[in-house]
What we know:
- By secondary structure, the chain is of the alpha/beta class.
- Helix content is 56%, strand content 13%.
- It has helices at 2-26, 49-60, 72-86, 100-110, 133-159, 185-205, 223-229, 234-240, 248-260, 270-278, 288-323; strands at 40-44, 64-69, 91-94, 115-118, 167-172, 210-216, 219-221, 245-247, 265-267.
- The strands form two sheets. Strands 3-2-1-4-5-6-9 form a seven-stranded parallel beta sheet, with helices on both faces. It has a two-stranded parallel sheet with strand order 7-8.
- Helix 1 (2-26) packs across helix 11 (288-323) and helix 2 runs parallel beside helix 3 (72-86).
- The longest helix is centred in the last third of the chain and has 36 residues, at 288-323.
- The structure holds NADPH dihydro-nicotinamide-adenine-dinucleotide phosphate (NDP) and 3-Dehydrosphinganine (VSD).
- 3-Dehydrosphinganine binds at residues 123, 174-176, 179, 181, 218-219, 225, 228, 240, 242-243, 271, 274-275, 278, 301, 304-305, 308.
Amino acid sequence: xxxxxxxxxxxxxxxxxxxxxxxxxxxxxxxxxxxxxxxxxxxxxxxxxxxxxxxxxxxxxxxxxxxxxxxxxxxxxxxxxxxxxxxxxxxxxxxxxxxxxxxxxxxxxxxxxxxxxxxxxxxxxxxxxxxxxxxxxxxxxxxxxxxxxxxxxxxxxxxxxxxxxxxxxxxxxxxxxxxxxxxxxxxxxxxxxxxxxxxxxxxxxxxxxxxxxxxxxxxxxxxxxxxxxxxxxxxxxxxxxxxxxxxxxxxxxxxxxxxxxxxxxxxxxxxxxxxxxxxxxxxxxxxxxxxxxxxxxxxxxxxxxxxxxxxxxxxxxxxxxxxx
Length: 324
Ligand SMILES: NC(=O)C1=CN([C@@H]2O[C@H](COP(=O)(O)OP(=O)(O)OC[C@H]3O[C@@H](n4cnc5c(N)ncnc54)[C@H](OP(=O)(O)O)[C@@H]3O)[C@@H](O)[C@H]2O)C=CC1
Ligand SMILES: CCCCCCCCCCCCCCCC(=O)[C@@H](N)CO
């Protein structure tokens, strides 16, 4: 009897170990490290908020940094603020990401890129019924089409680079790019679009040692967020509040670490970690440990997701009841 118990215990211990070994053998793409020291990091939307924090962080870590945005004045201000806080000079380039020719010229003037961070973004939260089609188009154009323009412009140079070290293309999504949220129809659509782009692009560029990352911040205290809050529907704030508010510097740190470790999904807080597992789907996964966590917690996290929807629909129902 004792022998049977022992062999049962041994089997219980062996199965997860065998499963981990199996995952280690099959996870793709293979693990990678992407150094940024002395390499060229090109950050769009780098004159404000998360982009500015990323530029400062990358410069501090020894990268050569270029930031792109439209307003030259804001770019100059960002450059000065980075110089004052770090003593390092970043390069600036003005272009609208919606204009392919301007983006191509900007990318060419900046020189070969090792890490492209497509971070520019616009967001105006409204119920679709109250949102102008111009705002809808703007979010799709800047957040999604603008990102296509950047990748199309930068890819040839990244593929033909002379040093054969691994390079990265990173996209700034949002937790609203993992789950649709009240007030974010257009914004969520633009950010969900980035996921399709990222997954398909990773298939296409893996042979060139180019690694794609998708970053998913929660609400983050930035000039854009302050502007958004002036007219955001109350329900949007309540639902997004499930994940709290982060500082731009914290998001930048998580984002850069995710990029350097070649992670495909880069969550920024604990709720983001849960969301990444709950929405893993068929996304690429380099880490066998994360793959293991995804498999064993899938059922429980589906239940957690259903509970979140239950509370969100509760808030929506309450809101409508009060309005009547
Ligand atoms: N703040 C938040 O709560 C969250 C933000 N995000 C995402 O993070 C990214 C950065 O957000 P955040 O730092 O808050 O934004 P900010 O509004 O603070 O900064 C936006 C940056 O993008 C630039 N930009 C905007 N439109 C264009 C354009 N057409 N061409 C080139 N550059 C442009 C702006 O410069 P200029 O206007 O001069 O062009 C600015 O540098 C966005 O993609 C956003 O969706 C994700 C989750 C949460
Ligand atoms: C299964 C486990 C679930 C875990 C919790 C889920 C919490 C979801 C909260 C979503 C928050 C969305 C914020 C969008 C921020 C943003 O992008 C805007 N500020 C515009 O920039």
